[in-house]
Structures are given as C-alpha cells and as structure tokens.
Amino acid sequence: MEVILKQDVKNLGDKDDVVNVKPGYGRNFLIPKGYAILATESARKVLAENIKQAQFKQEKIRKDADAVAAKLEGVKLTIGAKAGETGKIFGAINTIQVADALKKEGFEVDRRRITFDQEPKFLGEYVANINLHKEVKVQVPFEVVAE
C-alpha cells in the first residue's frame, strides 16, 4: 500500500515522501492519526504541485541548515553530571541537556533532532548526531565531566 506522508514519521520517512507500507499499518495507524493519505492519482498530482511551489522555500531552509552545520563543526560541548567513584553517571545524559548546552553556545536546536550512537551513561567523550535537515546532518562531540 502506498501512502503520502503528511508529516515526518520516525523510521519511515519525511513529509511529502511516497512510501510503501503494509496495509494494516496504513489503514489502522497512519491514515487515522493524520500522518498520511492514500497515494491516489489525484493526491499525487496535488503533491507534485505542492512540491514544485515549496522548492524555493526548501532551498532557503537547506542553506540555513548548511550555515548552522558549518558553525557547529568546531564546537565541543562539556556537560556536567553527578557521577559515582567508578565514573558511572547517576541517570544518563539526554537530548535535553545537549540542547541546553548548545543553547548556551548560541545554537537553537530542537531536542527531537538530536540522537546518540551510544547512550552516555559514564564519564567520557561521546558524539551527538544532529539532524538539521533531511540532507544536512552534523556530529557534535561532547564530554561528560563530573560535577
């Protein structure tokens, strides 16, 4: 079953993508929640027209994301956390703390766009993956230190 996504769906696709999904997932989840519509011929024509009109706007957003990515290249964050004698953090570092650290450096990044390869649960150095745009991704190193 082919559907057109009306918004970004994690692990499936971005807005205005035409994706192939199992019929039950499309009928029972994506369409009732408003995340997608059926990819009929008329819906595809409307999608093509919308994409054509939004091309200029998307190019500007991509250029802005490239500029932010270029500035983020040299940034290294330090995040303080309470830790035990063995270096294990009480709790874990999450995306909210990384977003706050980026905000202190002067970058406004939505926490939902930040992911980790390895969950920071010990003191040390880690990498945060920031998805600024579907084509622009940047990795920001950060160090977790004891407070």
From TrEMBL:
UniProt-listed Gene3D superfamilies: Ribosomal protein L9, C-terminal domain (3.10.430.100), Ribosomal protein L9, N-terminal domain (3.40.5.10)
The keyword Ribonucleoprotein is assigned to this record: yes
The Large ribosomal subunit protein bL9 C-terminal domain, residue ranges: 64-146
Keywords: Ribonucleoprotein, Ribosomal protein, RNA-binding, rRNA-binding
GO biological process: translation
Ranges for domain Ribosomal protein L9: 1-46
RNA-binding keyword on record: yes
A GO cellular component annotation in the UniProt record: ribonucleoprotein complex
Pfam families: Ribosomal_L9_C, Ribosomal_L9_N
Taxonomic superkingdom: Bacteria
Gene Ontology terms for molecular function: rRNA binding; structural constituent of ribosome
InterPro entries with a match to the protein in the record: Ribosomal_bL9 (IPR000244), Ribosomal_bL9/RNase_H1_N (IPR009027), Ribosomal_bL9_bac/chp (IPR020594), Ribosomal_bL9_C (IPR020069), Ribosomal_bL9_C_sf (IPR036791), Ribosomal_bL9_N (IPR020070), Ribosomal_bL9_N_sf (IPR036935)
PANTHER family: 50S RIBOSOMAL PROTEIN L9
UniProt family annotation: Belongs to the bacterial ribosomal protein bL9 family.
Job of this protein: Binds to the 23S rRNA.
Protein name (database record): Large ribosomal subunit protein bL9
Organism of origin: Mucilaginibacter pallidiroseus
